[in-house]
Amino acid sequence: MIAVLALIAGVVLGVLLEPTPPVWLLPYLPIAVVAALDAVLGGVRARLEGSFDDKQFVVSFISNVLVAALIVFLGDQLGVGSLLSIGVVVVFGVRIFGNLAAIRRRLFRA
Amino acid sequence: MSAPAGQPRHPAAPDPAGRAGRGREPHALADLFGDLLEPGYALAAQRRAAPGGGRPPPRSWTGRAGTALALVAVGLLLVVAYRQVVADEPTRSQVRSDLAEQIHQRQTETEALHRRADQLRDEVARLRDQQISDPQLVRLLRELEAATGLSRVRGDGVVVRVADGPAQVDPQTGAPVLDPQARILDRDLQELTNALWAAGAEAVAINDRRLTATSTIRSASGAILVDRQPVASPYQVAAIGPDDLRDRFAASPAAGLMGLLVDEFGITYQLRAADDLTLPAATEPQLRHATSAGGNS
């Protein structure tokens, strides 16, 4: 309940404050979104399976976003452009699908 | 609950917390990466369950606050990313329209310069005619100019009108998309003009751009350039020639090709005889390296 409220509060804050991210941050945004989605879905799944843990969630969220950003940064520095980002998106995409499948199995027993 | 005997557990899905694979059907994506839940969650659950074995201890307030904060950050992130994507679009179209404006401006400049060149050319011709006393010579010069495309010419002939096929509406973006095969190519215009010359045309112009012996018709990334000037669909190819120009052109392979393109891809193709056409003068070719080899003919 609190979690849903916090998520809504974040969205409302974003709409009201209209923060403009600095230009150097822009390439990391899409990757950060995918990483955050993975952490959130992992949390939801853990919650449904009754094993949710606050510390685990916060740590996984921060580390996901940081590692994803680091990989994008590394890709930029190595000159392979967005190739490493594609890797990040694929890995997180697979994880998101897997977690969604688990949530679906929990909710609908199917 | 454990897996029933005789049905081996999937080897790619180890279960660190000892949870059984309840109703676990083989799932291609999930199996690729094994169990996707962070093992940390299971470990934390084990830790909590280990002492006592009763109800897990209540969640600490700092933990709840941390989770709430992280979720606020997620919401913020989503909104910022969404706004960024939406904000990118106007910038892109802004750059595009700026470029288009510059191109139009340069095109107007070029046209103004062309007009000025035409005026000066007329003036040069007038002054030269004044200097040359022999009317015979003046007439010869005029005829040569007309033949080489350096002066305006009038006469009867044909007008061939071709245009790109109909555009389809893209189901995703709603923007009209032209089938590349329904597009008139530089090759089509080349075939047309070659057939016109072959049918006896003495002067040819595409969209009021006169063709000379050094004219080029080529394409540059989708646009057709006639003498390095872009021309756009619909294309009007006007030609002055003998009375049977229309019939001779209609019998040419190029006309057959156009008919085929109309049937296959729905391009527009019209051929009509036209009286009293006026074709403009071509821009003067600047001969930098070739010089007259003499001979007065």
Shape of chain B: elongated
Q: Can you identify the CATH superfamily of one domain in chain B?
A: Protein of unknown function DUF881
Which strand-content bin applies to the residues of chain B?
A: 15-25%
Question: What can be said about the biggest beta sheet of chain B?
Answer: 5 strands, antiparallel
The termini of chain A sit apart by: 25 Å
Helical coverage of chain B, percent range: 40-55%
Largest sheet, strands/sense/barrel of chain A: none
Quaternary structure annotation: heterodimer
Principal-axes geometry of chain A comes out as globular
Helix-strand pattern of chain A: HHHH
Could you describe the 3D structure shown?
- The complex is a heterodimer of chains A (110) and B (297).
- Chain A has 110 residues and is an all-alpha fold.
- Chain A has one domain (23-108).
- Chain A contains 4 helices and no strands.
- Chain A has helices spanning 2-17, 29-48, 54-78, 83-108.
- In chain A, helix 2 (29-48) runs parallel beside helix 4 (83-108) and helix 3 (54-78) runs antiparallel to helix 4.
- The longest helix of chain B is centred in the first third of the chain and has 71 residues, at 61-131.
- Chain B has a domain at 156-279: Protein of unknown function DUF881 (Alpha-Beta Plaits, 2-Layer Sandwich).
- Chain B contains 7 helices and 10 strands.
- Helix content of chain B is 45%, strand content 17%.
- Chains A and B meet through helix 1, helix 2, helix 3 and helix 4 of A and helix 1, helix 2 and helix 3 of B.
